[in-house]
Amino acid sequence: MAQTDTINDTNIDFGMLAESVGYRLRRAQMNFFAKFTEICSDLGISPGLFSVLVIVEKNPGLTQTAVAQALGNDRSAMVAAVDKLESMKLIERRPAKNDRRSYALFMTKYGQEFFEMSSRKVSDYESTMMARLHSDQEKDQLIDMLKRLS
Amino acid sequence: MAQTDTINDTNIDFGMLAESVGYRLRRAQMNFFAKFTEICSDLGISPGLFSVLVIVEKNPGLTQTAVAQALGNDRSAMVAAVDKLESMKLIERRPAKNDRRSYALFMTKYGQEFFEMSSRKVSDYESTMMARLHSDQEKDQLIDMLKRLS
DNA sequence: ATTCTATTGTTGTACACCACAACAGTTATT
DNA sequence: AATAACTGTTGTGGTGTACAACAATAGAAT
């Protein structure tokens, strides 16, 4: 079989990917998410668990499936998530008043403090990333465009 | 234990997430990626395999690890990927000329045709998504901002 | 030359994530 | 009263991904 030279170029042509919005979106999101995951990890949770906290904090009394639907997850994924957050004393399951099948999810007092501290760190991170944009107006435009692509 | 009403609001408060660039980035990317995955699936490949094709097509003769580095993957992930693409007769491993450890990756003729057909479909999809933006200038600005966030 | 270190492809493993099916208990509908 | 629909839960399988280890090979050091 014919043997061939390999190329070890540090300057690789990404072809259509270079100017593809889908690829750029993915790259930016992965970069953003990597640091966010790290922050969450320092807090002892995962990004998914943090998103559950956000929903429960702003919408006390939600059902597990309601939270799952809000986040676009399967409700089966909620079990382990709520188990974990409950074992950390951050949220609690209370039996629903008029439906013995379901639980209502609530923040504990400690969970509230934990959440405020956590979301402060997350907001700080957001701010440092936003410094890469030129203006608040640009940021608003970015969010607007991203919403249109969702 | 006190029982409590559940809330089944369709109008859920996403709190800090609603105006968070990180969250919006994730949402847009996931939405974008879901359809992209579907297109790839129709072609019989995965998004990861498609990205390998893009790199190999534009950079013939690359080593497996070079492709892995370009894509930010571990080189161990490349084995199954190249196995699959080779079994589909899309690319081929040729023994490297001056290094008996490594292979040089090349597109087959059929792989070339397959890739052109595939990237056409992917580009079409990109175009339909870009229709949600107001202008080409807006698209350029979006890509520019996304690059800054990477 | 010989030894030591680095690299390549490869395999195995472990872990996170996610979708899906199934189930018992409960509620809603007919 | 019967049937369908929904809740939390468990299990399973697929997928992606990071990491360690290995033999073969290459490069560097002495």
Describe it.
Two copies of one chain form a homodimer. Chain A has 150 residues and is mainly alpha-helical. Chain A has a single domain, classed as Winged helix-like DNA-binding domain superfamily/Winged helix DNA-binding domain (Arc Repressor Mutant, subunit A, Orthogonal Bundle). Chain A has six helices and two strands. Chain A has a two-stranded antiparallel sheet with strand order 1-2. In chain A, strand 1 (91-95) and strand 2 form a beta hairpin. At the A-B interface, helix 1, helix 2, helix 5 and helix 6 of A face helix 1, helix 2, helix 5 and helix 6 of B. Chain B binds a DNA duplex (30 and 30 nucleotides) through helix 4. Chains A, B: Residues 18-150 form the HTH marR-type domain.
Helix % of chain A is 55-70%
Shape of chain A: elongated
Mean pLDDT of chain A equals: 90
Class from helix and strand fractions of chain A = mainly alpha
Radius of gyration of chain A, rounded? 21 Å
CATH class of chain A: Mainly Alpha
* Number of discrete domains of chain A: 1
Oligomer: homodimer
Q: Would you identify the CATH architecture of chain A?
A: Orthogonal Bundle
Which chains share the greatest interface? A-B, 70 and 70 residues
- Can you summarize the main beta sheet of chain A? 2 strands, antiparallel
Strand content of chain A: 5-15%
Alpha carbon gap, first and last residue of chain A: 49 Å
Would you list the SSEs of chain A in sequence order as H and E?
HHHHEEHH
Protein name (chains A, B): Transcriptional repressor MprA
Domain HTH marR-type (chains A, B): 18-150
Organism (chains A, B): Marinomonas spartinae
Keywords (chains A, B): DNA-binding, Transcription, Transcription regulation
